[in-house]
Inverse folding.
């Protein structure tokens, strides 16, 4: 009974091909990739995957061919000519195993619907590629004759989905064509710069017990710095967001150094820990304020990290000071401010008291505690540090003028 819904090798088959006509499509450069181990069809446009569909493929005894083909015919409501019943014709309808759409790709092979939807995902046909009826009808409208069709046997797939997740899958060797090693998987991961985030143990487990499961190994996200989206993407690993620090620093025009021995990134006198993922240095987003005095925020809708730099200058020279808005007023950390100004202060951590000697008198400086760090509002800086402060809200810059 398998022949009722499998691919039909018959000399009468050509009779059912009506024509190869064109449809109006909005896709730029569409192409189709069929991967047999994953039993999926990917529809590409402009070299980007825009849709993935589940399929059924040929049995081990009648495998689906591998190679590069193209759509050579398109038919709505195709008839079926059973190869074991010469002269019989099964018209379009619920008893027709080809479903209601046919896309011929080579000789007697094609992509078509099915009247046995539960077979999708299986290795059951005589070589054809079956799709759910709703899927093949959608695909039918999106491609024309001449659309390239590539049939592959790729047991390792690494991809990024619409949510920015990086997924790894090792699929079963359905036809016994290809054994794989840990290094084979790593070669795939290398294109995503994710080798160091996946252990050999996990890869061996996936190879020894291959399945259709896609494992999330990281999440990708876009990065916007001072209104400009950079080309490099960030990584989320174990709920921690990391940014490629050299790409961020380059956009900010900051000169940084990577200390390989101590695994820290240095900017001026400030250092923060970093990690290396396939030769790219990453820093956790929580350290960006310390390193560059910029405020990170997250845009869920765009899956994007946004970094807004608050430029801080002392006598026209940039200084590395964190900037925060406290109670509606811009503030900077008091101890680093005193250091860059060269002013001596006394800090009592236990009492959280900041004092300074002014004209022989010990003066208490008003502060606001943020994460155990004393901040001073810019409205108090002139009175207690004798520095003039100019804040340009639109340009997001703070200028200190100090003798």
């Amino acid at each position: 009974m398998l022949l009722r819904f499998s691919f039909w090798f018959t000399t009468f088959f050509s009779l059912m091909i009506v024509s190869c006509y064109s449809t109006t499509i909005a896709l730029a450069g569409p192409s189709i990739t069929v991967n047999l181990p994953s039993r999926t069809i990917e529809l590409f446009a402009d070299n980007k995957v825009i849709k993935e569909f589940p399929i059924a493929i040929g049995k081990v005894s009648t495998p689906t061919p591998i190679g590069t083909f193209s759509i050579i015919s398109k038919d709505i409501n195709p008839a079926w000519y059973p190869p074991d019943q010469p002269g019989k014709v099964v018209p379009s309808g619920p008893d027709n195993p080809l479903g209601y759409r046919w896309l011929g790709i080579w000789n007697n092979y094609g992509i078509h619907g099915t009247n046995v939807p539960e077979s999708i995902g299986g290795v059951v046909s005589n070589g054809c590629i079956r799709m759910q009826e709703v899927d093949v009808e959608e695909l039918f409208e999106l491609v024309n004759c001449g659309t390239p069709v590539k049939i592959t046997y790729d047991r390792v797939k690494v991809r990024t989905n619409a949510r920015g997740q990086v997924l790894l899958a090792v699929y079963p060797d359905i036809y016994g064509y290809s054994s794989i090693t840990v290094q084979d998987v790593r070669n795939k991961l290398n294109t995503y710069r994710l080798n160091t985030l996946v252990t050999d143990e996990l890869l061996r487990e996936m190879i020894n017990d291959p399945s259709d499961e896609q494992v999330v190994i990281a999440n990708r996200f876009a990065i916007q710095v001072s209104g400009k989206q950079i080309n490099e993407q960030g990584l989320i690993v174990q709920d921690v967001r990391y940014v490629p620090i050299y790409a961020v620093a380059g956009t900010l025009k900051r000169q940084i150094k990577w200390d390989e021995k101590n695994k820290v990134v240095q900017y001026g006198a400030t250092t923060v820990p970093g990690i290396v993922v396939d030769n790219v240095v990453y820093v956790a987003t929580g350290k960006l304020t310390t390193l560059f005095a910029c405020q990170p925020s997250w845009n869920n809708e765009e899956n994007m990290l946004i970094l807004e730099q608050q430029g801080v200058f002392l006598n026209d020279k940039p200084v590395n000071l964190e900037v925060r808005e406290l109670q509606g007023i811009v503030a900077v950390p008091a101890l680093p401010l005193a250091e860059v100004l060269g002013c001596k202060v006394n800090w009592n951590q236990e009492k959280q008291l900041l004092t300074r000697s002014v004209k022989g008198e010990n003066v208490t400086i008003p502060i606001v505690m943020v994460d155990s760090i004393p901040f001073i509002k810019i409205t108090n800086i002139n009175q207690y540090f004798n520095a003039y402060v100019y804040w340009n809200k639109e340009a997001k810059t703070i200028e200190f003028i100090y003798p």
Observations:
- The helical segments are 133-142, 182-190, 200-208, 245-252, 288-292, 334-341, 378-385.
- Residues 156-218 form one domain.
